[in-house]
Amino acid sequence: MDTIQIFEAMILGVIEGLTEFIPVSSTGHLILARDLMGFKSTGNTFEVLIQLGAVLAVLSVYFGKLWHLVTTLPSSPRSRHFITGILVAFLPAVVIGVIAHDFIKEVLFETPMVICVALLLGGIALLIIDRIPSQPRYTDIESYPLSLCLKIGLFQCLAMIPGTSRSGSTIAGALLLGTDKRSAAEFSFFLAMPTMAGAFAFDLLKNYKSLNSADAVTIGVGFVMAFLSALVVVRSLLAFVSRYGFAPFAWWRIVVGSVGIGVLLALR
After folding, report:
1. Which parts pass through the membrane (predicted)?
2. What separation, in Å, do the N-terminal and C-terminal C-alpha atoms of the chain show?
3. Cα(165)–Cα(229) distance, rounded to whole angstroms?
4. Tens digits of per-residue pLDDT, 9-62?
5. Under a CB-based contact definition with an 8 Å cutoff, are residues 161 and 31 in contact?
6. What residue spans define the domains of the chain?
């Protein structure tokens, strides 16, 4: 096994964990960092499969709440409503993800300019949305109306374009639909669980025959690093957002997108 490749997998795992749950596009950052380092993965599976490490970080932080939801499901209408809402929000990503999977992996994942433009435009949009004065109508994720959940799920599908950001599109959509910043970020956490687990399972099913032992090692290293770094983010993000909003992430996107566009144009 190439030591350099292991080190690169560690770096990419950290990038995945740090960026998955903040609205800056983990996939966009992974692809740009991958291309910069010259890292190669079979069928672009590494970038998708290590996301499960970040999912497990959410599961570990919210285990108590998840266990409560599961154990009270038969008796609590509130628990049933919340779980139904997450599944409703997840549904659009299932449909579009299955239909567009090959195009996303084979075309969009290989087009850095698309990623940089998405980072830039998404940053500008997030900055505008963050500054819009609002009086939130929805602040409790467990009582979000199912119609609201479906609309947020549709916004999440924008993240099929690398650089858009799954959490960014989900949070921005939720804010535009009348939620507060903290609950928008928290709902994004819960929606990430089935979405990213589903992407992991679907991608593994399509590509497992082409993977080898070397792929398994690099994916394992990236997985562990994604889990550890995502723990830090999940435990601190809600407090950060409540205090500072989403503007710092918006400016980061604008800077990274602008620099990326400049570099790509200079290399032509």
Report:
1. 48-70, 82-100, 112-132, 144-164, 184-205, 217-238, 250-267
2. 34
3. 18
4. 999 999 999 999 999 998 889 988 998 898 887 777 888 889 889 989 999 999
5. no
6. 3-267
CB 195 within 8 A of CB 167: no
Q: What single-letter amino acid sits at 132?
A: I
For the entire predicted model, the pTM comes to 0.86
Helix (H, G, I), strand (E, B) or coil at 138: strand
Q: How many residues comprise the chain?
A: 268
Please report, for residues 34, 87, 136, 255, 258, the alpha-carbon distance to residue 121 in angstroms, rounded to integers and kept in the order given. 22, 29, 25, 11, 10
Summarised one tens digit per residue, pLDDT across range 118-166 is 999 999 999 999 988 878 999 999 999 999 999 999 999 998 888 899 9
162 token code pair? 């690398």
Q: Which two three-digit tokens encode residue 106?
A: 């084979």
Q: If you ran DSSP here, which 8-state letter would residue 164 be given?
A: S
Asked if 69 and 83 count as a contact pair (C-beta separation under 8 A), the reply is yes
Task: Spell out the residues 6+ positions from residue 104 whose beta carbon is closer than 8 angstroms to its own.
Answer: 97, 160, 162
Q: What distance in Å separates the CA atoms of residue 129 and residue 39, rounded to the nearest whole number? A: 35
